[in-house]
Design goal:
Elements: H1 11-53, H2 57-112, H3 127-176, H4 183-211, E1 219-221, H5 223-241, E2 244-249, E3 256-258, H6 260-276, E4 283-291, E5 294-301, H7 323-328, H8 335-345, E6 349-353, E7 361-368
Parallel strand pairs: 2-4
Antiparallel strand pairs: 1-3, 4-5, 5-7, 6-7
Helix pairs in contact: 1-2, 2-3, 3-4, 4-8, 5-6, 6-8
Amino acid sequence: MKIRKPVPHLLGWKLFLSHILIVVVGSLVLVVTSRIQAPNAFLHHMEHMRILLGPDNAMAEDLRRNFLAASNEILLISGVVASVAAVLASSFIAWRIVSPIRSLMEASKRIADGNYSDRIQTKWNDELGELALSFNQMAEILEGTERRRTELIGNLAHELKTPLTGIRSMMEGLIDGVLSPDTETFLDVQRETSRLQRLTEELSQLSKAEAGIIQLDLEQTNPAELIRRTVSRLESQFEDKGVQLVVEVSHNLPHIRMDSERVLQILINLLGNALQYTNQGGVVRLKCSLLNSHLRFSIQDTGIGIAPEHLPHLFDRFYRVDSSRARAHGGSGIGLTIAIHLARAHGGTITADSRGPGFGSTFTLTLPIDSDS
C-alpha cells in the first residue's frame, strides 16, 4: 500500500489571500481616485468660497492643506477598518468553505482504507451539501457492493465445499469398499462435478459481461422457434414440480437478428427463476409479442413475489432476495446480472415487476427488432 504524503493545507490560505487582495486592490483604486478627483473638487468648491469671502490666498492654501490632510486621515482609517474587516470575513469564509472540503477529504481517505460505513454529516444547504450527499450515496453503494462481495465469498465457499465434500466422500467409499462401483454412484459424482462446472462457467461469463467483451454471433432467428427450444429445455422440470407452464406466442412474428444461444440463455434463466420461486400448483406464463418496434418476452408467475425494496437491486451482482432459499436451490446470485448484460449487448433490457410478497412477479425481456441499433 502506498504511503500518502501529507498535503499542505493551502486552499484556506489561497481563499484568505484572495479576499485580502480584493481589499488591497479596492483600497488602491480608492486612493488613486481620491488623489485625482479630490484637488479638482476642492478647487471647484474654493471658487464659490472666494466669491463669498473675497480674495485671500493664505486662507485658500490653508484650507487646501487641511482638506488634503483630512482626506488622507479618512482614507487611512477606512483602509485599516476595511483590512481588519477583510481579515475577519476572509477567515470565516475560508473556514466555511475549507472545513466541509477537509471533511470530505478525510472521509475519502477512510473509505479508501476500507471503512465503507463512514458518512459525512450534511449540514450545508448549498453545493457543498449536495457534494456531501453524493459522497454519502457513493459510500453507501460501495458498502453494499463490499457486503455482497463478502457474502459471495462465503456462498461460493459453501457451493464449492458441498460438491467437493460429496465427491470426496464417494471416492473414499469406493476405496474402502463401502460403496459399490455401479452406475448410480458414478452418476452422483457426475452431478457434483457438473455443479462445479456450472459455477466456474457463471463466474467466467460474469467477468466477461462486466468487462464488456461479450461476443455475439448474430443471425436471423425465429422467435417462435426460440420459445420452443426454451420450453423443451425446462418442460420436464415443470412437470416434475407440478407447476403449469402456459405459452402464448403471437402469430407472424418477424425474424430478428440476435445471438440465439445468448437469448436462449436469458430466457432459460428467467423461466428457471420463475419455476424455482413458484410453489406446486402454481402457474408460469411465457408470452412473446411485438410492442412498437421491439420484441417482448414476458415471464409471469404466481410465485412468492418480490418486496418493493428488493426490485431496484435484483440485477446487481451477487444480490439475492432470500439467501437461504437461493442457496438451497444452488443459486449463486449472478444469473440475472449476466442476463441483463446479455440483453444490453443486444441493445435491449430486462425489467422486473411485482406487487409484493405473495403476488408473484413478472420479468420482461425487450429486444429491438433491428439489433444493430
